[in-house]
């Protein structure tokens, strides 16, 4: 291989690794406030943006996070998400925020954010939190967990299964930053046992080493939507 060809290969590899690590696209403009009406919008970088001349401070604003979400549900928790859907000014900016309320012993059940790392701080109460690695080279999955008090910060790396459990006797509050304007959530129980149409009982009973009756039972449960 000539020196020139080697340089081309090295260049391509560098480019490939750049692409592999990229997340939200690099911005092409200061902001691209999401527009619902394409007729009144510009098309930039694959997304509709509101005409900058029509953008107002309200496009970058969302109030109401001082109010607790209603935790009167099966799991005893509630996520108030502020993503590009709730705050159009976040479009293309690669970041979002959530307030999470937990009733005493409330649980934010094991879930994944396919597109975001999450950094969480406890504002009130005590949370037992944890995440599990993807499959390690030798097999197995390592579990990292910690009890967090008010003011503590913990990070859940992108794409890994994680949870938060209120182990205190009082309601807890956390604020989470997420490294995507649209982090997405896959709640493990819902996705596996609550998918519609249902995943075949043969598949689930073999995968989880459970009797088919147990799978039927799990599939018949109510899997609360937890966005
Ligand atoms: C979360 O709280 C909001 C505001 O109180 C409420 O409208 C919503 O139904 C709650 N979600 C769940 C899953 O309980």
TrEMBL record:
<feature type="binding site">
    <location>
        <position position="162"/>
    </location>
    <ligand>
        <name>Mn(2+)</name>
    </ligand>
</feature>
<comment type="similarity">
    <text>Belongs to the germin family.</text>
</comment>
<dbReference type="InterPro" id="IPR011051">
    <property type="entry name" value="RmlC_Cupin_sf"/>
</dbReference>
<feature type="binding site">
    <location>
        <position position="113"/>
    </location>
    <ligand>
        <name>oxalate</name>
    </ligand>
</feature>
<keyword id="KW-1015">Disulfide bond</keyword>
<keyword id="KW-0479">Metal-binding</keyword>
<dbReference type="GO" id="GO:0030145">
    <property type="term" value="F:manganese ion binding"/>
</dbReference>
<dbReference type="InterPro" id="IPR019780">
    <property type="entry name" value="Germin_Mn-BS"/>
</dbReference>
<feature type="binding site">
    <location>
        <position position="111"/>
    </location>
    <ligand>
        <name>Mn(2+)</name>
    </ligand>
</feature>
<dbReference type="InterPro" id="IPR014710">
    <property type="entry name" value="RmlC-like_jellyroll"/>
</dbReference>
<keyword id="KW-0732">Signal</keyword>
<feature type="binding site">
    <location>
        <position position="118"/>
    </location>
    <ligand>
        <name>Mn(2+)</name>
    </ligand>
</feature>
<feature type="binding site">
    <location>
        <position position="108"/>
    </location>
    <ligand>
        <name>oxalate</name>
    </ligand>
</feature>
<feature type="disulfide bond">
    <location>
        <begin position="32"/>
        <end position="49"/>
    </location>
</feature>
<keyword id="KW-0464">Manganese</keyword>
<keyword id="KW-0964">Secreted</keyword>
<feature type="binding site">
    <location>
        <position position="118"/>
    </location>
    <ligand>
        <name>oxalate</name>
    </ligand>
</feature>
<feature type="binding site">
    <location>
        <position position="113"/>
    </location>
    <ligand>
        <name>Mn(2+)</name>
    </ligand>
</feature>
<dbReference type="GO" id="GO:0048046">
    <property type="term" value="C:apoplast"/>
</dbReference>
<keyword id="KW-0052">Apoplast</keyword>
<feature type="domain" description="Cupin type-1">
    <location>
        <begin position="63"/>
        <end position="216"/>
    </location>
</feature>
<dbReference type="InterPro" id="IPR001929">
    <property type="entry name" value="Germin"/>
</dbReference>
<dbReference type="InterPro" id="IPR006045">
    <property type="entry name" value="Cupin_1"/>
</dbReference>
<dbReference type="Pfam" id="PF00190">
    <property type="entry name" value="Cupin_1"/>
</dbReference>
<protein>
    <recommendedName>
        <fullName>Germin-like protein</fullName>
    </recommendedName>
</protein>
<feature type="signal peptide">
    <location>
        <begin position="1"/>
        <end position="22"/>
    </location>
</feature>
